[in-house]
Design a protein that fits this description.
The protein is α/β, with parallel strands linked by helices. The chain has three domains: about 1-165, HUPs (Rossmann fold, 3-Layer(aba) Sandwich); about 200-400, Hypothetical protein af1432 (Orthogonal Bundle); about 400-680, Divalent-metal-dependent TIM barrel enzymes (TIM Barrel). It contains 29 helices and 16 strands. The strands form three sheets. It has an eight-stranded parallel β-sheet. Strands 3-2-1-4-5-6 form a six-stranded parallel β-sheet, with helices on both faces. Strands 14-15 form a two-stranded antiparallel ribbon. Helix 11 runs antiparallel to helix 12.
Length: about 675
């Protein structure tokens, strides 16, 4: 039986607490979906206070687009007249007889429940999940209601918040933009359509009369989609500026004007540049899509009266970037790429990842965007602007993190000791077993020790760590006792990993032991769904396997089928083992680009989070899994060098699992770092 949550209300407008409520209910009660069901004309509210159904639908759809378990439903507002919850639930039962419905409400609604229309009928037709924003216990109240209506009321909690739709409407009417309280797409939509008596934001950059007309002038000159994009960039730039300590007014204005020359055609832009003696490079003349950045400086100054050199410079480089950019320039460049209206198919880095990174690290976000851009242009056999290449190389060198390289280390002396051991070997990442490689009880974690490692990693700019599950863990084992043992290890390790938040947990998918991969794959996914929590910071990595015996994960297709069944899609990725992939039949020596393209087509390069860097003792397609030192096996040093320096693998942690002692690992780490340095020259 399907378990469907119903979150009703006017959603006037939908805000972040609505999303928090839906997410918490979904996770805590293992719901299959949550339906956002706006009411048509609720009996307790004035119709004049509510914006149109069309506007509310679009805002909801924007807000929930990032979660695959959230759905929009017009089940209520498509019905004429006053809508009552009891009637809605009755009709839902008729339409969906095999579904268990869970009605989600706030604590304030529960206190008024007795006054609702036909409360007994509501209680008879669904379970009721009550959310508290204030953290107070609801047990007593729920118990009282359960005694009256039957055991249908259950409580859940979200972080305290004073956000409400009415409070947001009041802010908007006063000209206050409620950043963080509304999803960015929703805020842009509200402002574009002038909902809730919104006022154009205050520019504060000039008292020139022309500046007062900026919004209507832009709206009249740009196409509707371009203008909506402009609003999104301006809002995103302002938000980034607040986070990164930049003047948000300047960021907002630069974002508003970044495409101000886009009202002209390519031919008109070239002609205007010639007339105004604006120098264009040969590449710009052959690629007119780039000209609007440089011409935008002229238009912003002459048409909109902007004289601030910092703002004009941000407009000038927002398309290609440039070396040594200011924070404002970085912000506008990034905002143009990640604004809420963007729906591009991003590879190798997902748009979600870039958006998250942008609010943490501007330079890393720049690198990810430029890697995506270069990848796309190269794939489409289009020329890459030399300035973009120069910018990319500059920031890769500037961060001095062309490569994160390390090896497996013993955890016997604790976390901090591993970090210090890595530094002695010249490493800036490492791998470790969460417990004995052969399984068993894990060592007790010292939180202070974990904290010391985190501090050391931050001080020395470590990449993400790649913890490894014990080899005995087989979540798809044919024997129930082994399967249960393995699932318990997986759950326990997920909790332990949170002492080192934001890192990777790698494991071998398992061996089906005669069941067949088709039987084992859903079992593996089920184990992951029971172990992975939506709010955990750890990303679980499935390792590419050689195909020895009955191993699952012998090809990219098997890994993709597991990933497809995992609920928390942002918590699952792949560790690309070079030895395993080679032994599994993929030609890393003669066709590395082809292998990566195949991976991208089947799984997606954004899910390739880490690399086990190993040579192989065996020929390709042997399915034997025998690691060898770098350059001493069948893959060879040159092929491994191409892997390490491949732009599509940039930024990933590379973990050595070669048969070495400390001195051997130090030599390999130094050699691989030299490869990275050479590739940047």
């Amino acid at each position: 039986m399907n378990k469907i949550g119903i979150l009703g209300g006017t959603f006037n407008p939908i805000h972040t607490v609505h999303l928090q409520m839906a997410g918490a209910a979904c996770n805590q009660y293992d719901l299959d979906e949550v339906w956002f069901m706006p009411s048509n004309h609720p009996p307790h509210k004035e119709e004049s206070d509510i914006v149109s159904n069309e506007h509310r639908q679009r805002m909801i759809q924007f807000a929930i687009s990032c979660c695959k378990k959230f759905r929009f439903s017009d089940f209520e507002y498509s019905r004429p007249g006053t809508t009552y919850t009891s009637d809605t639930l009755s009709l839902l039962h008729e339409s969906y007889p095999d579904t268990q419905f869970y009605f989600i409400m706030g604590e304030d609604s529960l206190r008024d429940f007795d006054s609702w229309h036909e409360p007994e009928q509501i209680a008879a037709r669904c379970r009721i999940l009550v959310c508290s924003r204030e953290g107070r216990s609801l047990m007593e109240l729920c118990e009282k209601m359960n005694q009256k209506y039957g055991s249908v009321f259950s409580a859940f909690y979200i972080p305290a918040s004073c956000i409400s739709s009415s409070y947001i409407r009041e802010q908007l009417q006063e000209g206050i933009l409620p950043y963080g309280q509304l999803p960015p797409q929703v805020l842009s939509y509200i402002r574009l359509h002038g909902l809730y008596h919104t006022k154009p934001w205050c520019i504060n950059a000039s008292k020139d009369s022309a500046m007062k007309q900026l919004i209507p002038m832009l709206q009249s000159s740009l196409r509707p989609k371009r203008f909506l994009h402009t609003l999104g960039v301006a809002d995103t730039a302002s938000n980034l500026a607040v986070v990164h300590g930049v003047n948000p007014q300047n960021a907002r204005l630069a974002g508003m004007l970044h495409d101000c020359a886009k009202y002209l055609t390519d031919t008109e832009m070239i002609a205007l540049c010639e007339k105004k003696h604006i120098h264009l490079t040969d590449f710009e003349c052959s690629t007119p899509a780039l000209i609007h950045s440089k011409l935008g400086v002229f238009v912003a100054r002459e048409r909109y009266g902007v004289e601030d050199s910092a703002i004009l410079s941000a407009i000038a480089c927002h398309t290609t970037g440039k070396p040594d950019m200011t924070s404002l320039e970085k912000i506008v460049f990034i905002a143009d790429y990640i604004e809420p209206g963007r729906k591009m198919d991003c590879s190798p880095h997902s748009l979600k990842k870039i958006r998250q990174t942008s609010f943490q690290d501007l330079d890393q976000s720049l690198i990810l965007i430029l890697e995506n851009t270069i990848h796309y242009l190269t794939k489409e056999k289009l020329p890459v602007d030399p300035v973009s290449k120069e910018t990319y190389l500059y920031y890769k060198k500037e961060r001095n993190n062309m490569i994160y390289i390390g090896n497996h280390l013993s955890s016997s002396k604790g976390f901090e000791a591993m970090g210090k051991a890595a530094l002695k070997l010249g490493a800036n990442t490492f791998a470790f077993f969460t417990r004995n490689p052969r399984g068993g009880k894990a060592k007790e974690i010292d939180p202070a020790d974990a904290k010391r490692l985190r501090s050391l990693m931050e001080e020395h700019h470590f990449g993400k760590l790649v913890a490894h599950a014990p080899y005995t863990m087989n979540v798809c084992a044919a024997k129930p006792d082994i399967r249960e043992f393995s699932c318990n290890i997986l759950k326990d390790d997920m909790e332990r990993m949170e002492y080192l938040p934001g890192n990777y947990y790698n494991f071998h998918p398992g061996a089906h032991v005669g069941q067949g991969a088709e039987e084992a794959i859903p079992v593996i996914a089920d184990a992951l769904n029971h172990a992975i929590k939506p709010d955990q910071s750890t990303v679980v990595l499935l390792e590419t396997m050689a195909g020895k015996g009955s191993e699952v994960g012998r090809n990219f297709e098997e890994l993709e089928r597991i990933i497809e069944l995992v609920d928390c899609e942002d918590k699952i990725g792949v560790c690309f083992d070079t030895c395993h992939t080679w032994d599994g039949g993929y030609d890393l020596v003669e066709d590395l680009d082809g292998v990566l393209h195949t991976f991208d087509q089947i799984i997606g390069l954004d899910r390739l989070k880490a690399v086990h860097l190993n040579d192989s003792m065996n020929v390709r397609d042997s399915h034997k899994d025998r690691h060898q030192k770098i350059g001493e096996g069948e893959i060879g040093a040159e092929a491994l060098k191409r892997i390490v320096t491949h732009p599509l693998l940039a930024g990933r942690p590379f973990i050595l699992e070669t048969p070495n002692d400390d001195a051997g690992y130090a030599r390999e780490i130094a050699m691989i770092k030299s490869w990275a340095d050479e590739s940047m020259e």
